[in-house]
Amino acid sequence: MDTETHYEVKDMKLAEQGKKNLAFAEMHMGALLRIKEKFIREKPFSGIRIGLALHVTKETGILVRTLIAGGAEVAITGCNPLSTQDDVAAALAAEGVHIWAYKGETKEDYYRYLTHVIAFKPHITIDDGCDLVSEIHLKHTDLIPHLIGGCEETTTGIIRLHAMVRDKALKYPIIAVNDNKTKHLLDNYYGTAQSTLDGVIRATNVLLAGKIFVVLGYGSCGKGIAKAAKGMGANIVVCEVDAFSALQAVYDGFRVMKMEDASVIGNIFLTVSGNKHVIRVEHMKLMKNGAILANSGHFDCEIDVAGLKKAATAEEKIRPFMDQYVLNGKKIFILGEGRLINLAAAEGHPSTVMSTSFCGQALACEYIVKNREKLPIDVIQLPPEIDDTISKLQLADLGVSIDEMTAEQKKYISSWQEGT
Questions:
Q1: Residue 327's beta-bridge partner residues?
Q2: Is domain 192-344 classified as CATH 3.40.50.720?
Q3: What are the residue ranges spanned by the domains of the chain?
Q4: Which of 17, 136, 362, 382 is packed most tightly, with the most Cβ within 10 A?
Q5: CATH 3.40.50.1480 for domain 2-185+350-397
Q6: Is the pTM above the cut of 0.90?
Q7: What is the pLDDT of residues 350-377, one digit of tens each?
């Protein structure tokens, strides 16, 4: 490990490669760069400290640069032990960013790094999964009076935040960036699909065509993964607990069944439910020899890996991100330790889709600063106009033009008198 006052990263010699990857990401994040140009002119974050717990990827690096360009002081750590790209972490450290992250963090280091970000005394938090917010509320309540707001990146974090609201535990306003259309309908749907299958393939090199591919959870992530895997020739089975989501899966042409039935026939199992132990040992005992299990939900609790370790008679690492367990005489393979496979074995979402997600984060921070006296202590959705702005920026970056309503159309769409 390389350590200085403002950083702890795996190897500073990786910084040059990290700079190259950051430059490549920038080429595909034009919408975010337009916001960066605006921030350079307006400096909305002068005097503001922003603490981040996000996947430390090349795309996140461009968000960090954007916030700094707006006048912010920034400190960042990872939000998952296996998701940091060490070359990017080194490059950001070389630029003077306060950063503590490496791929393969121990649990102790993970929480120690969160504490470093908290000690930075941010005015705004940006979280992915709600661990930073939870640590502040549970162990560092003295920071809360100084916080003006926060942003949450992902579905799991939003679920936890709503639970905090129900328990009357939340003590400062949080923007649900995940609820932007330009986030969950793009990042979750297209980004998770591509990066998840990329992770599964890199970890295993198995052919998806002809496999029975079981998707557990049919939200935006599950929908995208099912569609992408089908496009590669897999036969899709969906497992759900939500009646409407299950109905959507049926209407999308997929088989829907209980997990105990899917366990018997599946070849590859992919969890994106946001819930705990959706694949349990009782299911694994029903699986075929050679079944492959992976997770693309935020936390590593969706597959009961600890239960499998106890029940298995043998365990062996077969490939860098593939562990083999022998259960009832059959081989079961767990990818990426049950952690986010798209970041454990692959590189996370493509830069283009993260551009719109991080436009949302950057503009959410600006919204917090501009409305700091008016925000309720709640989970807040950004105004639809901001989503529209992000969409227009991305369309412009793609070189796409769209129509505008005529005066007659604007009048018609806003009135009720004209009918048949």
A1: 330
A2: yes
A3: 2-185+350-397, 192-344
A4: 362
A5: yes
A6: yes
A7: 999 999 999 999 999 999 999 999 999 9
